[in-house]
UniProtKB/TrEMBL annotation:
Gene3D superfamilies: 1.25.40.390
SUPFAM superfamilies listed in its UniProt record: TPR-like (SSF48452)
Taxonomic source organism: Rhodocytophaga rosea
Lineage: Bacteria, Pseudomonadati, Bacteroidota, Cytophagia, Cytophagales
Entry protein name: SusD/RagB family nutrient-binding outer membrane lipoprotein
Keyword Transferase attributed: no
Keywords: Lipoprotein, Signal
Classification via Pfam families: SusD-like_2 (PF12771)
Record PROSITE patterns: PROKAR_LIPOPROTEIN (PS51257)
Amino acid sequence: MITSKYIKTMSLALASLLMVSACDDGFEELNKNPNGAEVATPNLLLRNAIESTVTRTHSVDLGGEIGSGWVQHMAKIQYTDEDRYIPRVGTMNNTWSSYYAASGKDFQTIIELATKAEHDNYKGIGMTMRTYNIAMLTDLFGDVPYTEAFKGDRGVASPKYDKQEDIYPMLIATLDTANSLLSEGGKEVDGDIMYDGDIEKWKKFTNSMALRLMLRMSGKVDVSAGMRKIVNDPATYPIFTSNDDNATLFFLEASPDDHPIHTNRQTRDDHRISENLLNMLTDRDDSRKFVYMDVNGSNQYAGIPNGLLSSKAAAYGLTNVSDMGPYFQAPDAPAPIMTFAELNFILAEAAKKGYIDGGDTKAQEYYEAGITASFEQFEEPMQAVFDDMDGVHYGGANPANFTTVAEEIAYYISINPYDAANGLQLIAEQKYLALFDQGLQAWFEWRRTGFPVLVPAEDGANAGQIPVRLPYPSDEEGRNSSNVSEAVARLAGGNTLNSKVWWDN
């Protein structure tokens, strides 16, 4: 990964180009006008498309209030509607337009331009990231446009909605193609603010994401052959091997290129740590607590229950409840979209279920590797806390007074060991803890596994249920009503928060 030295305020010419990046006709005109001041090129589009994708995933309204809120990593202490399962209409509309018309269309254009230029590395990256965007959309909404998506410039103004059960195999096949296109010996890539043109890391992300998608649909389809193909042939299908491979974007210190959480915290103070997350960390003597959250005004760790009425939440007092840790609120905070820790928990579950070789022996190995990777992902801020503590831990965590992260990891695994009898639950719960600040993936996985067991919001407005999908956007219902209606008819419970997507049924 790299710090995003490339995320800079765009020149007026590039800004003008990016303003039209969501419009099919805009790209057509740019591509037809070689004498114009701005011509769409993969390197210019790639910078914007990566930042747009990651920003949407980590946005406060989607990644924070929907993902981290509904999965009970975070909670709201003011204006609590979202925490009570009342999402804003604008969140659905903006999410749809961002992953489709903005970043999704940019990646589609990169694929088309790269195909014409015979630039396989740009094409492979475009295919990988377009897949990420579509996967996010289908996991959020269910059936969505795919085979007819991004074709507005070819007269497809109302794309059909493909079934999720058809979309998933197509996404995995696309990732397989992307892996074959990506080559370290190929043409160089510019504008890559995620991996700085390191094609081997792009291959690792591509194949690691394929394993994520395979596991997610494993309750519906036999994925053993696909997972074994990747895991048993690392030369052809490399996957993450360390935190250096994490698909992470680092934002910059200065606005407008700072992390979306930092931007939000400049004017808002609505979010606090969920009591559920705090209890899970404390029960496990988990020192990630010192990084994930800050102390309250009394120098203690305190959470708040999810989904309170605003009046009840306000009674807790802003200074009495812990906020997200400073590490995550920094302007240049990292924004991961997939990590080595997550991959290890994917492999642990796959081994436990027999999708890949090794059984419980390998499941334990991957389980411990996942914990290790998660702690090491936060090694720098965690070590700074340990140094500040001068060897004395507080707040109920680790009484052994270890002073290095390596010692802490060994201690933590010893008191939270893998147990084959309830291995799937342990793997899912550790994945949940490792996915802090990746709330959408944590929510998707909670929906799939049912772990950890979560209690619905105290004052929830959704018939006592935690939502399992987002309703289709009102904008889409207005402009593509017949296809939306057809997709809604396939949902057992209609276009509601409680209608499960295909892989969750």
